[in-house]
Amino acid sequence: MRSPGTGSDQGARPSRRGVRAVLAAGVAATLLAGCGGGGGDAGGDAGGDGGQVVLDFAWWGDKTRAERYEKAVALFEGENPGVDVRTRYAAFGDYWTARNTEAAGGALPDVLQMDVSYITDYAENGRIAPLDEHLGSGIDVSTLPASVLPATKVGGETYGIPTSTNTLATIVNTDLLAELGVPVPGPDLTWQGYDEFLAAVTAAGAARTPTVHGSSDYTQFISLFQVWLGQRGKAMFDDDGGLGFDEDDLAEWWGRSPQLHEAGAFLPPERLAQLEGTDAIGSRESAAEISWDNFLVRFSEGAGGAAMALLPPPVDDPAERGLFLKPSLMLSMSANTEHPAEAAALIDFITNDPRVGEVFGMSRGVPASARAREGLQPTGPDQQILEYEEALAPQLTSAPPPPVAGFGALEAAFTRIGEDLSYGSVSVAEAVEQWFTEAESTLGG
Fold it and tell me: Into how many domains does the chain fold?
């Protein structure tokens, strides 16, 4: 399964001075008058010469996310005419390649979108700044649920601000299933039952153009593997930062892949590679995907507004779903920013402003901020996501602490080796050996 985010790196985008000028009409207060708090600049670009403070802001995502961020940034610039925000985005993998290169040179964007898989690495290596001095003054966290805050802390300090939350779901294109004559599964589908459902979709879609398969290869999705482990009373990591599972567990998980590819239940990897930048379910070449629940918006938009349903991931014991609420996205501040007060103000605005909540809806996940949710008038997919999380709430646990340093590399290796397995270039045993070798090296034995 492809990592979240599609699209190509667009480089630095020009500022929206014209848009900002319209939005700024009638706004008397500048940022420096309004952000208070610690970490303010001593002059800088916003000195008495009337110069602009320039903030670089980067995120991963697709074109629709970029359009939403541009609207949100334009609103921020409209209220803060002394600040010019330069924006850029990339697909998930390309995004982290670019950030790692910048981090090595001490040149990270002032504000960057952060993932729980990478926050420990970036915090422990001094790449991002602790935000505690800004909390309550520059950044209001009283609006955020306490259940997600553990995922923001490394060594007891806060390094990310959650803008949204999500959990895993099975997303199915009900319009396409109706065309194929395949019933929509129930909410307590077992793993065996789900695999049989995918095979039934493939059989019904074999004569269509393009051919319809059940889904892309879900065994490449490390977060789903984590949930599967939780359903069996195990964890990705133990309390000492070592692995909480063994080779047999991973062999059982990845052992599902060859047989499902052989049955045609999974979209062939060659075809998936050709769809780069397009979701298989959005192109109607698969009828189901297990992903984060907020992807319902993107998948529905990609499929031309097709009706889709949110179901819990497969489970053999409904009392042990292994699901948890997590920050779907966070915002962090570069340790090298020259404008920490302004960067904090941008983080606060993107997190808490109701207008930003309205712009994004549920596309990033459920807005973490109660104030941002005031801007919502959910309908369609947005309402579905809210109802899905509300229904699952009694069975969801709080977000775990951030994973160990190096988890981002382990996640990338999990996907890469899983893809090799889908092509048949390695056996299950070889795949497991390769990943555990990388894990041993990354975790220091």
Answer: 2
